Amino acid sequence: MNFLPISLVTVACLLAAPTLLQGGETPPARPAAEPSRTPAVEEILGTWRLIRFESLTMKREKRQENGYLLINDEFLSFECHIGWLKDSGARDASTFFSGTHSYKLRSDGVLELTQLIGSTVDPTSSNPVFEPPGRKREYKLSFNTATLTLTREKDPQSFTFERMPSTGAGLDFYGRRKPPSDGEK
Protein backbone atom coordinates (compact mmCIF):
# COMPACT_ATOMS: atom_id res chain seq x y z
CA MET A 1 0.00 0.00 0.00
CA ASN A 2 1.26 3.47 -0.84
CA PHE A 3 1.62 5.55 2.30
CA LEU A 4 1.87 9.03 0.64
CA PRO A 5 -1.63 9.19 -0.98
CA ILE A 6 -3.31 7.95 2.19
CA SER A 7 -1.43 10.55 4.26
CA LEU A 8 -2.47 13.38 1.93
CA VAL A 9 -6.14 12.36 2.07
CA THR A 10 -6.00 12.15 5.87
CA VAL A 11 -4.45 15.63 6.18
CA ALA A 12 -7.05 17.08 3.80
CA CYS A 13 -9.89 15.55 5.86
CA LEU A 14 -8.44 16.91 9.09
CA LEU A 15 -8.14 20.40 7.62
CA ALA A 16 -11.74 20.30 6.40
CA ALA A 17 -13.14 18.86 9.64
CA PRO A 18 -13.51 22.18 11.56
CA THR A 19 -15.52 23.65 8.70
CA LEU A 20 -17.72 20.58 8.42
CA LEU A 21 -18.31 20.53 12.18
CA GLN A 22 -19.39 24.19 12.15
CA GLY A 23 -22.14 23.56 9.63
CA GLY A 24 -20.22 24.07 6.41
CA GLU A 25 -20.41 27.17 4.29
CA THR A 26 -22.72 29.99 5.11
CA PRO A 27 -25.67 30.19 2.74
CA PRO A 28 -25.23 32.69 -0.09
CA ALA A 29 -26.70 36.12 0.52
CA ARG A 30 -30.17 36.59 -0.89
CA PRO A 31 -30.48 39.16 -3.63
CA ALA A 32 -31.95 42.44 -2.51
CA ALA A 33 -35.67 42.78 -3.11
CA GLU A 34 -36.58 44.80 -6.17
CA PRO A 35 -37.50 48.33 -5.13
CA SER A 36 -41.23 48.84 -5.29
CA ARG A 37 -42.58 51.52 -7.59
CA THR A 38 -43.58 54.77 -6.02
CA PRO A 39 -47.21 55.81 -6.48
CA ALA A 40 -46.01 58.63 -8.78
CA VAL A 41 -44.24 56.17 -11.08
CA GLU A 42 -47.33 53.95 -11.11
CA GLU A 43 -49.35 56.95 -12.31
CA ILE A 44 -47.10 57.86 -15.24
CA LEU A 45 -46.68 54.37 -16.71
CA GLY A 46 -48.26 53.96 -20.12
CA THR A 47 -48.53 55.65 -23.48
CA TRP A 48 -48.99 59.39 -23.85
CA ARG A 49 -49.77 61.56 -26.92
CA LEU A 50 -48.38 65.10 -27.25
CA ILE A 51 -51.18 67.68 -27.24
CA ARG A 52 -49.22 70.90 -26.64
CA PHE A 53 -45.62 72.05 -27.08
CA GLU A 54 -44.38 75.40 -25.84
CA SER A 55 -40.97 76.87 -26.64
CA LEU A 56 -39.51 80.37 -26.54
CA THR A 57 -36.92 79.42 -29.18
CA MET A 58 -39.21 77.91 -31.87
CA LYS A 59 -41.70 80.13 -33.65
CA ARG A 60 -45.32 79.19 -32.99
CA GLU A 61 -46.83 80.59 -36.20
CA LYS A 62 -47.98 77.78 -38.56
CA ARG A 63 -46.21 75.19 -36.43
CA GLN A 64 -47.51 71.64 -36.12
CA GLU A 65 -46.18 69.03 -33.75
CA ASN A 66 -46.81 65.35 -33.22
CA GLY A 67 -45.23 63.24 -30.48
CA TYR A 68 -45.55 60.17 -28.32
CA LEU A 69 -44.12 59.22 -24.95
CA LEU A 70 -43.99 55.60 -23.84
CA ILE A 71 -43.09 54.95 -20.17
CA ASN A 72 -42.49 51.59 -18.52
CA ASP A 73 -40.93 50.62 -15.18
CA GLU A 74 -37.37 51.70 -15.98
CA PHE A 75 -37.28 53.28 -19.42
CA LEU A 76 -39.07 55.84 -21.52
CA SER A 77 -39.07 56.60 -25.22
CA PHE A 78 -40.02 59.97 -26.63
CA GLU A 79 -40.38 60.90 -30.28
CA CYS A 80 -41.49 64.30 -31.52
CA HIS A 81 -41.87 65.68 -35.06
CA ILE A 82 -42.25 69.44 -35.53
CA GLY A 83 -42.99 71.21 -38.80
CA TRP A 84 -43.95 74.60 -40.15
CA LEU A 85 -46.37 75.09 -43.03
CA LYS A 86 -46.31 77.56 -45.89
CA ASP A 87 -49.41 79.59 -46.68
CA SER A 88 -50.17 77.01 -49.39
CA GLY A 89 -50.27 74.25 -46.77
CA ALA A 90 -47.06 72.60 -47.98
CA ARG A 91 -44.31 71.80 -45.49
CA ASP A 92 -41.86 74.69 -45.15
CA ALA A 93 -39.40 73.31 -42.60
CA SER A 94 -39.27 70.47 -40.11
CA THR A 95 -37.27 68.95 -37.30
CA PHE A 96 -37.53 65.96 -35.02
CA PHE A 97 -35.97 64.34 -32.01
CA SER A 98 -36.20 60.81 -30.82
CA GLY A 99 -34.69 58.94 -27.89
CA THR A 100 -34.90 56.13 -25.40
CA HIS A 101 -33.78 56.85 -21.86
CA SER A 102 -33.49 55.25 -18.47
CA TYR A 103 -35.15 57.45 -15.88
CA LYS A 104 -35.43 58.22 -12.21
CA LEU A 105 -38.27 60.22 -10.67
CA ARG A 106 -36.89 62.24 -7.77
CA SER A 107 -38.95 63.12 -4.71
CA ASP A 108 -38.93 66.82 -5.77
CA GLY A 109 -40.85 65.93 -8.95
CA VAL A 110 -37.89 66.12 -11.30
CA LEU A 111 -37.59 63.41 -13.92
CA GLU A 112 -33.90 62.64 -14.52
CA LEU A 113 -33.25 61.07 -17.93
CA THR A 114 -30.10 59.28 -19.08
CA GLN A 115 -30.08 58.77 -22.82
CA LEU A 116 -29.48 55.27 -24.16
CA ILE A 117 -29.95 56.15 -27.85
CA GLY A 118 -31.22 59.22 -29.63
CA SER A 119 -31.18 61.43 -32.68
CA THR A 120 -32.22 64.89 -33.76
CA VAL A 121 -31.73 67.28 -36.69
CA ASP A 122 -28.69 69.53 -37.02
CA PRO A 123 -30.23 73.02 -37.36
CA THR A 124 -27.38 74.25 -39.58
CA SER A 125 -27.46 71.44 -42.16
CA SER A 126 -30.86 69.75 -41.64
CA ASN A 127 -29.07 66.39 -41.45
CA PRO A 128 -29.79 63.78 -38.77
CA VAL A 129 -27.42 63.83 -35.81
CA PHE A 130 -27.00 60.85 -33.52
CA GLU A 131 -26.67 61.93 -29.92
CA PRO A 132 -24.16 60.26 -27.61
CA PRO A 133 -25.43 57.72 -25.05
CA GLY A 134 -25.27 58.93 -21.46
CA ARG A 135 -26.51 62.46 -22.11
CA LYS A 136 -28.46 63.74 -19.11
CA ARG A 137 -31.66 65.77 -19.15
CA GLU A 138 -33.95 66.96 -16.38
CA TYR A 139 -37.62 67.86 -16.61
CA LYS A 140 -40.01 69.07 -13.96
CA LEU A 141 -42.92 66.64 -14.01
CA SER A 142 -46.52 67.50 -13.27
CA PHE A 143 -49.46 65.21 -13.97
CA ASN A 144 -52.95 64.12 -13.14
CA THR A 145 -54.78 61.05 -14.35
CA ALA A 146 -55.40 62.49 -17.83
CA THR A 147 -52.42 64.77 -18.59
CA LEU A 148 -48.68 64.83 -18.00
CA THR A 149 -46.43 67.86 -18.52
CA LEU A 150 -42.64 67.85 -18.80
CA THR A 151 -41.00 71.26 -18.41
CA ARG A 152 -37.33 71.95 -19.03
CA GLU A 153 -36.28 75.23 -17.45
CA LYS A 154 -32.78 75.26 -19.01
CA ASP A 155 -34.19 76.25 -22.43
CA PRO A 156 -37.80 76.99 -21.56
CA GLN A 157 -39.76 74.19 -23.21
CA SER A 158 -42.79 72.28 -22.05
CA PHE A 159 -44.47 69.22 -23.48
CA THR A 160 -48.03 68.37 -22.43
CA PHE A 161 -49.37 64.90 -23.12
CA GLU A 162 -52.70 63.17 -22.76
CA ARG A 163 -52.95 59.54 -21.71
CA MET A 164 -53.86 57.27 -24.58
CA PRO A 165 -56.74 54.94 -23.76
CA SER A 166 -56.28 51.21 -23.82
CA THR A 167 -57.70 49.61 -26.94
CA GLY A 168 -58.94 46.63 -24.95
CA ALA A 169 -57.69 44.43 -27.80
CA GLY A 170 -55.23 42.55 -25.58
CA LEU A 171 -52.22 44.06 -27.38
CA ASP A 172 -49.53 46.32 -25.98
CA PHE A 173 -48.18 49.49 -27.63
CA TYR A 174 -45.94 47.39 -29.92
CA GLY A 175 -48.73 45.03 -31.00
CA ARG A 176 -47.59 42.12 -28.83
CA ARG A 177 -50.15 39.96 -27.08
CA LYS A 178 -50.55 41.03 -23.41
CA PRO A 179 -50.44 38.31 -20.74
CA PRO A 180 -53.88 37.64 -19.21
CA SER A 181 -54.67 39.51 -16.01
CA ASP A 182 -55.23 37.60 -12.76
CA GLY A 183 -58.99 37.72 -13.26
CA GLU A 184 -58.74 36.19 -16.76
CA LYS A 185 -56.58 33.17 -15.86
The CATH C-level class name of one domain: Mainly Beta
Low-confidence stretches: 7-24
Q: What string, H for helix and E for strand, traces the elements in order?
A: HHEEEEEEEEE
Structural class by helix and strand composition: mainly beta
| Computed Rg | 28 Å
Tell how many strands the DSSP assignment holds. Answer: 9
Q: Fraction of residues in helices?
A: 10-25%
Strand order of the largest sheet: 1-2-3-4-5-7-8-9
Q: What's the architecture of one domain, going by CATH?
A: Beta Barrel
Key descriptive features of the protein:
185 residues; 8-stranded antiparallel barrel; 9 strands
Brief write-up:
By secondary structure, this protein is mainly beta.
Question: Topology, pairings included?
Answer:
Layout: H1 3-21, H2 39-44, E1 46-55, E2 63-71, E3 75-85, E4 91-105, E5 110-121, E6 128-131, E7 136-143, E8 147-152, E9 157-163
Antiparallel strand pairs: 1-2, 1-9, 2-3, 3-4, 4-5, 5-6, 5-7, 7-8, 8-9
